[in-house]
Structures are given as C-alpha cells and as structure tokens.
Amino acid sequence: MDAEPAFVPPMAEPQKSDLKVRVASAVVMLAIAGTAFWFGGMAFDLLIAAVAFGVFVEYVMLASKIATTPAALVPMVIGGAIYIGWAGLALVVMPEPLVLVVLGLVICTDTGAYFTGRSLGGPKIAPAISPSKTWSGLAGGMAAAGIWAALVVLGAGYLLSAIGPTGPSIASALEVANVGVAALVGATLAVFAQAGDFYESWLKRRAGVKDSSRLIPGHGGLFDRVDGLLPVAIIAGTAWAASQVGA
Q1: Which end of the chain is more exposed for a tag (fewer CB within 10 A), N or C?
Q2: Largest distance between two CA atoms of the chain
Q3: For the chain, what is the domain count?
Q4: CA atoms within 13 A on the CB side of 83
Q5: Contact 183, 139 (CB under 8 A)
Q6: What is the pLDDT of residue 125?
Q7: How confident is the model over 133-154, as a mean pLDDT?
Q8: How crowded is residue 140: how many other Cβ atoms within 10 Å of its Cβ?
C-alpha cells in the first residue's frame, strides 16, 4: 500500500501592494488642496479649518486610548486643542505664498529624510518611538529643507531684482538675498518638522495603533499626513504675525 503523501500547507498568497491605492489617494488629496488654493480666500481657509478639525478628532481618539481616567484625558485634550488650533490659525493668517513655502519645506524634509535614511542607514534616533528614523535621515532632511529655503529666498531676490534698472540678475539677487541665513533657518525648521513626526509617533505607540485613523486609504489619517507641518506652521505663522505688528 502506497504511503500517503506528506501534507503540504497551501502557499500564502502574496500580499498585494497598496501603491495604486496610495497614489490614487494622493491624487485626490492634491486635487482638493489645489482647487482650494486656486480659489483662495474663504475656500482655502475652510479647507484648513476642516483638516484641523479632523486632526483634532484623531488626536482625541489617540488621547482617549492613552488616558486611563477622564481627569487625565482633559489636559491632553486641552493641549491638543491649543497645539492643533494654533497651527491651523497660523496657516490661515499667513499669506498663501508663505503657506506654499512652508508646505514645500515640510515635503522636502520628509523626502530628504526618507531617501537619505534608506540609502545611508546608521544609528536610530529613538527606536522605541520610531524605529525607521535615523540620524542620517535627519541630516538629509535638514539639508533638503535648507536647500529649499535658500532657493526660495534666492528666487524672491531674483524677482525683486527685476524691478531695478539692470533687470533680473542672479548677482543682484545674491546681493539682497541672505541665502546662508535662509538655509540655516530651513534646516532648523526641519528639526521641528521631525519633532512633530516623533510626537505623533509617540502618541500612536502609547495608544497601540499604527495610524491615527483609516480615513485616507493607503495613507492612514489626517494627523499622519500633517504631523510635521503642525510645529513648522506654528513657528512660521507666529513669526510672520509678529513681523506685521507695527509694520
């Protein structure tokens, strides 16, 4: 009698990539943000307010998983309202071109940190909070943000030089644009952007969740998308508002 064939467990189906879902969600988000920015004014402010409210709701959901008692939850909710509300207000009061500059800086920070960290690796910054974040990634994010800020200031100087009698000139732009200071400011803001990322990662670790919500397919929640933007918006918006006092 032939021996029974050994049991062979069925092969697990390969996990489907969520790249298409992520790309589709990104296109939708860009379309919504781009349309609101195109119309500007109230439309853009309403988008900021809606996003800020959504982020606050997700923050409260995280806080409710962390706090063990209602008494512990109250100060967390108040702190989150101040943190997120301040950032939202800062984005509303800033002129729209400055909002674009801030968004670009945060995107450059994330992109530079991601690719540098993946390429160079090295020691982790805080593996217990965010295992993927490395010191090399932080340096790459700072470099990318510094370059972005320098290019923005140089570009603004170039446009201003067009008003002069000699017309637009890179040399004239370099005379009026302090590129070095701009790069330093950009690199410093990149640190705060990464700190905002770490703060949300710390909250999610304590809450025992991977994403702040499942609102955006393939991307998690709104808080996941703007965690680095919040502190940078607070700093940039507050600095801009202060510069307008007495101006």
Answers
A1: N
A2: 102
A3: 1
A4: 21
A5: no
A6: 94
A7: 94
A8: 24
Please state the φ and ψ torsions of residue 56, each to the nearest 5 degrees.
-65, -40
> What is the spatial distance between Cα 184 and Cα 143, in angstroms, rounded to a whole number?
9
Q: Which two tokens stand for residue 174?
A: 């370099």
Asked if residue 46 lies in contact with residue 36, where contact means CB atoms within 8 angstroms, the answer is: yes
The terminus-to-terminus CA distance of the chain in angstroms comes to 98
Residue 3 forms part of a structural domain: no
| Residue 152 lies inside a defined structural domain of this protein | yes
Taking 90 as the threshold, does the pLDDT of residue 109 lie above it? yes
Report the alpha-carbon angle 116-118-122, nearest 5.
85
Residue with the two structure tokens 């680095």: 228
Domain that holds residue 194: 25-242
Please check whether residue 16 lies inside any domain of the structure. no
- Residue 132 phi/psi, 5-degree rounding, is -90, -10
Output the CA torsion sign for 242, 79, 60, 225. Answer: positive
Question: How many C-alpha atoms does 226 have within 13 Å on its Cβ side?
Answer: 27
pLDDT value at residue 161: 65
Higher pLDDT, 144 or 34: 144
Q: Which two tokens stand for residue 133?
A: 């974040």
Task: Determine contact, residues 124/116, Cβ cutoff 8 Å.
Answer: no
Instruction: Return the closest-CA partner of residue 224 out of 199, 245, 206.
Output: 199
